[in-house]
Design brief:
Elements: E1 8-9, H1 19-23, H2 34-50, E2 57-63, H3 66-77, E3 83-88, H4 91-103, E4 106-111, H5 120-129, E5 135-139, E6 141-142, E7 147-148, H6 151-161, E8 164-168, E9 187-191, E10 202-208, H7 209-213, H8 226-236, H9 245-261, H10 263-285, E11 300-304, H11 313-322, E12 325-326, E13 328-329, E14 337-341, H12 348-365
Helix pairs in contact: 2-9, 3-4, 5-6, 9-10, 10-12, 11-12
Bound molecules: pyridoxal-5'-phosphate.
């Protein structure tokens, strides 16, 4: 599927891309070029289609990593006197809380245990308790632990109570079903370098047209003003400031491959197979996932670190890298863990090879005791 001798990235972006996607970057584009601007337009159309957004939603691309687009969405969609509820079960939820504080938007930080999904009932109760909340900012797949939150249920609650909803679907978009007709939202944010399997460098916000049109003047930031980017693009077909041309070209190629593969259902199925092969192989080595299988998204798996005193993440990482695979450190506050991504231009065979590499590494480093000595919270 890929590469020369580069290691396989088992990280939730950047991730391993196909040869065709890399090859799409071998050409320089001018930002005024009609062909280039046609590519941007076609990408935006396809991205709205992926969530069934129809004519009610538009896609506004934004330069930068995914966080830039999350910040742009919060800054535009939430008026300066708005109040945002952030159900918080991990690092990316916490990042949204931080964004709200930077932007001076009132925020309610609602803690949810990081091994528990945020449910419709949790959000409903919080909204009932505080009617001054105007918006909910919800992470779909919390990439910190790899947990899937109940986005469809939460969207229904927001619709019922007349609250705005901003979705960080960065690590789920294109892999886990999101249908704007059944799961209405004000704005949904994702990026080029996650489950679409493009390269990193741009994000995008799929936003309800009426919400975007009412957002003029909300943004605290010129560079991140989605409304201004949209209006300029409508008028000129161009990006407002220098576009990430190679990233855009690679994303076009990546979306073409996504469609050829069979779209979101096929991509989601490949990732689910990757995840199953990984969890099964790691279990045979004695590794336990941090999450219960019912709440595990097929995007990234958090494993308990081995209890053996010979285990040290940096040495383990380096030894697995020598064998061709890049792992990811854990991001949990309570227990020591590491993560393995299931996304990118990789298949279940590759996941079995990773497990072999981990098995050999354990032997090499003399790590025998795998089962965690640290007790988990009672189930
Ligand atoms: C990757 C990711 C982001 C954005 O991270 P960047 O490093 O800015 O690209 C935001 N939210 C979630 C849930 C993510 O997985």
């Amino acid at each position: 599927m890929i590469r020369g001798n580069d290691p396989i990235l088992l990280t939730p972006g950047p991730l391993t891309t196909s040869l065709a996607t890399k090859q799409a970057m071998l050409r320089d584009w001018g930002s005024w070029d009609a062909a280039f601007n046609g590519i941007t337009l076609s990408i935006c159309r396809d991205l709205v289609d992926i969530v069934g957004g129809g004519d009610d939603y538009v896609c506004v691309p934004m330069q930068g990593s995914g966080t830039f687009s999350v910040e742009a969405a919060v800054g535009n969609v939430v008026p300066r006197n708005g109040r945002v509820l952030v159900p918080n079960n991990g690092a990316y939820c916490a990042r949204i809380v931080k964004i709200c504080r930077y932007l001076g938007r009132d925020v309610v930080d609602l803690p949810v245990p990081e091994d528990q999904p945020t449910t419709a009932a949790i959000v409903d109760a919080a909204l009932a308790a505080d009617p001054t909340i105007t918006h909910v900012a919800q992470v779909h797949c919390e990439t910190g632990a790899g947990i899937l939150n109940d986005l469809p249920g939460i969207a229904q609650v927001c619709a019922k109570r007349g609250k705005g909803l901003i979705v960080d679907a960065m690590s789920s978009f294109a892999a886990i079903e999101i249908d704007a007709r059944a799961t209405p939202f004000d704005a949904l944010v994702a990026a080029s370098g996650k489950c679409l399997e493009g390269v990193p460098g741009m994000g995008f916000v799929i936003v309800k047209k009426s919400v975007l049109e009412a957002s003029a003047g909300n943004s605290h930031s010129l560079a991140l003003d989605l409304y201004d980017q949209y209006v300029y693009m409508q008028k000129t077909t161009q990006w407002r400031y220098t576009p990430p041309t190679h990233v855009v070209a690679a994303l076009r190629a990546a979306i073409d491959q996504f469609k050829e593969e069979g779209g979101q259902p096929a991509r989601g199925a490949r990732y689910a197979a990757n995840c199953a092969a990984l969890v099964e192989g790691m279990a045979a080595l004695g590794f336990r996932p941090f999450l219960r299988p019912e709440v595990q998204a097929p995007i990234i798996v958090t494993f308990h670190a081995p209890a053996d005193p010979a285990y040290d993440f940096k040495r383990f990482y380096a030894a697995v890298r020598e064998r061709g695979y890049i792992l990811y450190p854990g991001k949990l506050t309570q227990v020591e863990t590491f993560r393995v991504g299931c996304i990118g231009a990789i298949d279940a065979n590759e996941m079995r090879n990773v497990v072999s590499a981990v098995g050999e590494t354990l032997k090499d480093l003399g790590i025998r005791e795998i089962g965690s000595a640290r007790p988990r919270k009672a189930a």
